[in-house]
Amino acid sequence: MDTKHKPLFIAFSTQKGGVGKSTFTALVASMLHYRLGYNVAVYDCDFPQHSLSQMRERDLKMVMKSEVYKKLAHRQFSTINKKDYPVIQCKADEALNKAGDFIRSSAVPVDVLFFDLPGTVNTPGVLTTLAGMHYIFSPITADRVVIESTLSFTDVLTNVLMKKSQTSIEAIRLFWNQVDGREKSPLYEVYEKVITELGLTLMQTYITDSKRFRKEGEATAKTVFRSTLLPPDEKLMKVCRLDMFMDEFIRIVKL
């Protein structure tokens, strides 16, 4: 599938750890690459954790150990006849140059590149790399510390960098993650008012809390959720509203 334009650079980025940026990078990259027909690459710049590189290693081991995963992987490869997307480790200040080299040398046209960046703008190259993104998505949870740090971070990107036209950024979107239960509490309304007053934009879809987000592949599992080798199971996607999130995501980035 050809997106008929230059490759998109996208980051799930936030100033707080543990709110889902690496998880969403893997989920969305796997959906686009394995189920929706796009060609994807992922740059793991999150030193020293390198969460996505570790996830890829675990996924490869799981496919070797588990008959269920082995069959799923074989069926997928037979159906789409496509290699897994590359997960490339690099430093934040090298990411844009390395991505440019990769696009030029790739045997297949690249549609989307995801960048998993460190959770602090003080890391060399993080702000410059973020300024080179086309779209930034920031997961937030209803926690005062998370909200305050994410809003100040997003405010700088939106109202300083973007307004000075020093970026490639076309849109920044915040979205609620780990929402407890089926309905959001009044606390969310308070935070949403602040977000609006700051001139920031919140996605309509929120993700409900799910234990699946914190589970890697398990030898006994019959389905896959968070994986760099397979797309998330469609039923599990519906449970946490990830199916609706993907629809909105695709509309925003105009794929």
Observed structural traits:
single chain, 255 residues, alpha/beta, six-stranded parallel sheet, 9 helices, 6 strands, 44% helix, globular
Structure report:
The protein has 255 residues and is of the alpha/beta class. It has 9 helices and 6 strands; from the N terminus they run βαβααβαβαβαβααα. It has a 6-stranded parallel β-sheet with strand order 3-2-4-1-5-6, with helices on both faces. β5 (135-140), α6 and β6 form a beta-alpha-beta unit. α2 crosses α3 (67-80). The N and C termini lie close together (10 Å).
Topology:
Blueprint: E1 8-12, H1 21-35, E2 40-44, H2 51-65, H3 67-80, E3 87-89, H4 95-105, E4 112-116, H5 126-131, E5 135-140, H6 144-162, E6 171-176, H7 186-197, H8 234-240, H9 242-253
Helix pairs in contact: 2-3
- The percent range for helix content is 40-55%
Poorly predicted runs: none
Into which percentage range does the β-strand content fall?
5-15%
The pLDDT mean sits at 88
Count of DSSP-assigned helices: 9
Instruction: Write the H/E string, N to C.
Output: EHEHHEHEHEHEHHH
Largest sheet, strands/sense/barrel: 6 strands, parallel
Which value, in Å, is the CA radius of gyration? 18 Å
Q: Kindly, what is the distance between the CA atoms of the first and last residues, rounded to a whole number of angstroms?
A: 10 Å
DSSP strand tally:
6
Major sheet: arrangement of strands: 3-2-4-1-5-6
Which structural class matches the secondary elements? Answer: alpha/beta
Shape: globular
